[in-house]
Amino acid sequence: MNANLKLYEQQHLLDDMTEKQKRVLSAAIDVFAEKGYANSSTKEIAARAGVAEGNIFNRFTNKRGLLEAIVNPVIDQIFPFTLRDLIDNQLSKNNQTLADFIDGIIRDRLAFVIENARVVKIFIGELFYHEEMRDLLMKSLPKPYWDRVRDELRILQALGEMVPWDPQEVLRLIWSTVGGAAIGYLFFDQALTETAISHTVEALIKQLRP
């Protein structure tokens, strides 16, 4: 399985694509991640994919169409799916401590970033520049995710495991921590070693202990 396309293949989003079109999409992910969207060209992407430039226009119309083919499925299907997976496998555990909760979320999300680094890098880059994309992302988050996370936070607070902050504040701190670690890894070559991840987990636990 092509590492660049793993997320898309898992959701059967490429079932109607030819092998050439898949190569083009994978090459676009490589080039956009390495050089940025603005500094990339369809000619370079076609050369990387080993196809004629016309193959890009036949399926994706233009460079922007290629970017949308990478980013839009992340918002519409991939991101909601990964959050449902997080709910089912991480937030459905009983009798968690704060340490268990934070360690599970941090490791799960950073593992996702590492495994899908190039796609995530392109996606984050677009979020920085396009407010409408940020709005679409927030609207795509499944309501059960918010409800389940808030319930989990309130349980930890009731047990005296966590500071009695508003759940929204806690979530903001958790996701800003995950986002900071991901941005450091993707854009500034800051390795996500076991030690670095452990330190991130420990720092967040200290901030959220009562």
TrEMBL record:
Keywords: DNA-binding. The keyword DNA-binding applies. Residues 18-78 form the HTH tetR-type domain. It holds the Pfam family TetR_N. PROSITE patterns: HTH_TETR_1, HTH_TETR_2. It comes from the Bacteria. Residues 41-60 bind DNA. This is TetR/AcrR family transcriptional regulator. It comes from Lacticaseibacillus mingshuiensis. The lineage of its organism: Bacteria, Bacillati, Bacillota, Bacilli, Lactobacillales.
